[in-house]
Amino acid sequence: MPSTSPQAALIVGAGDATGGAIAKRFAREGLIACVNRRSADKLAPLVDEIRASGGNAQAFAADARKEDEVVALVEQIEREVAPIEVMVFNIGANVPCSILEETARKYFKIWEMACFSGFLVGREVAKRMVARGRGTIIFTGATAGLRGSAHFAAFAGAKHALRALAQSMARELGPRHVHVAHVVVDGAIDTAFIRDNFPERYATKEQDGILNPDHIADNYWHLHQQPRDAWTHELDLRPWQERW
Fold it and tell me: What is the pTM of this model?
């Protein structure tokens, strides 16, 4: 039976496209969307949209690379909002660069954003979920987590590490009733960045050639709803014409 008590969905990296769509999807199902970015001001339009649609949303500013801020974020939501029933880690760090020009500082920063922050948030919410004997943790991955392309050494390294983190957590936490999933998003997403910088790719939208954020969000909700006897750990999402 579904719980009648308030439940929170923590979306870390609630951007204007995928993260926002996921937050709206979970809010539509009755969860309190706790959306997070480093700047709370950027979350105001998303929170307003969710509330205008009859959902419940709250914005939280925290740098997911900082352990003390992550600990405080999770503690605040658990104490003041509701138990975190699902956590979606959706921080991107796709910054291409030749290995001949890559700097140690930027390589480390990309790892912090795309992997280390996932560990911090995943660890904190897992503690609460294991204690309650339920919960869902979903990490947004990428093609770079499966193969390292030229000019993406930093991003590929971080996404490979995030995938390994998800696998390890799934094997440890699954027997303790916590569903850990990793979603490989393979392809361009319908965003302003793709529209403005890759107009030819964006033009394939009418032929379903790029990913619709709402459809990505539907799959995240499905993962959360899966029964324990048929859990998906890794899910690939890509447009029909994407090569793989």
Answer: 0.94
